[in-house]
Design goal:
about 350 residues, alpha+beta, twelve-stranded mixed sheet
């Protein structure tokens, strides 16, 4: 399998991209990519550890101080978010975390409260992921991860897949160790929608000015207060509105226009709100230099003057999460990372006549 992990350093820190690059076409056909697992760390022997910082039983994503004995495991998860109400746990309607926890409880025979499952990004309802990262804890070790990997994917519905399972050092935390994230937003800009793209790209019939959108996207690059681009209807536990955008590219591939944004972190609906404004600029309804003016106000009401709602969720995909290299080190004595088992057809020994 191809290995995509030669990404440039950001903020003078050695970071590794945990995930991959989503295919330019429909989400179900991504390129073959794998995670980078680094050499074992002699200072992190794989033994029973105590973790501090995982959430409580009612909401594993809540920021509370809690010590947990056990072995920590890292998951790389992909999902089609069409049928789900986002990542974060809730019973009805189902969420990705809810479905994944049910599979984990069956595979590990543990209670949900004992797993302490945490995701790197709490994607919204209808949003997809190619490189979501999560971790969970077990009170026991595994000699091999291939069996639980196969069991999980056998229990999960076909629109959710665990791409990889690996051991994690005690210091790793899927959410709080993250140093950056990459999102793609897809727009299908043509008179007639491609039916194979309908679940993964937002259809816009108005001819968009990609050059104007690129000019506007450049204004987002850098460190800014993004208060004007965040919806305040949910407390995501990250009150600091100052975020760094490392790159914001507008890539045109025929009728498909892909907005690729990479940053230190993103607040609730920030990417979809930025995409909505870029769409208005692409339609030439407003000029590209409106972006710094809106940013300067730090007021969500100012953005509402130019776009009434965030871009629809189905065009958005979490592509990858970035971590410092030391957080991706494998503990000594841990089982080999599982990338999934391939079935091999044995040679037929029955003679043919």
């Amino acid at each position: 399998m191809e290995n995509l992990n030669s990404l440039s350093p950001i903020q003078n820190k050695r970071m590794t991209c945990y995930g991959g690059v989503v295919a330019a076409a429909a989400l179900p056909s991504p390129p073959p990519t794998t995670l980078t697992t680094l050499p074992s760390s002699p200072s992190n022997t794989f033994v029973r550890v105590r973790e501090v910082g995982s959430g409580g039983a009612e909401d594993p994503n809540t920021v509370v101080k809690q010590s947990v004995d056990g072995f920590k495991w890292r998951l790389l998860v992909s999902y089609d978010g069409t049928r789900y109400k986002g990542w974060q746990f809730q019973q009805t309607p189902p969420t990705i975390q809810c479905i994944l926890e049910k599979a984990l409880t069956q595979a590990t025979k543990l209670e949900r409260k004992d797993l302490h499952l945490v995701g790197a990004s709490r994607t919204d309802g209808g949003v997809h992921a190619w490189g979501q990262v999560a971790h969970f804890i077990t009170p026991f070790n595994y000699d091999s991860l291939d069996s639980i990997h196969a069991a999980l994917n056998g229990l999960l519905p076909p629109d959710i897949r665990v791409r990889e399972i690996s051991a994690a050092v005690p210091e790793f935390h899927a959410r709080f160790s993250a140093q950056g994230k990459i999102y793609h937003y897809k727009i299908y800009n043509d008179a007639i929608m491609d039916p194979f793209q309908r679940l993964y790209a937002y259809h816009v019939t108005h001819k968009l000015n990609a050059a104007a959108m690129r000019e506007a996207a450049n204004h987002f690059i850098g460190t800014h207060d993004f208060s004007a681009f965040v919806n305040s209807s949910r407390n995501d536990g990250m009150p600091n509105p100052v975020k760094a955008i490392f790159r914001f590219d507008i890539v045109k591939m025929g009728a498909l226009l892909q907005l690729e944004v990479e940053g230190s972190g993103f607040m609730y609906r920030q990417v979809r709100n930025m995409a909505a404004l870029l769409l208005q600029i692409g339609k030439e309804a407003i000029p590209p230099d409106i972006v710094p003016k809106i940013l300067a106000t730090r007021d969500r009401k100012e953005l509402a003057k130019y776009t009434s709602a965030a871009a629809p969720p189905h065009g958005l995909c979490l592509v990858a999460v970035k971590y410092n290299a030391e957080h991706l080190q494998l503990p000594l004595g841990c089982p080999t990372t599982s990338l999934g088992r391939h079935h091999i057809v044995s040679k037929c020994k029955v003679p043919f006549y």
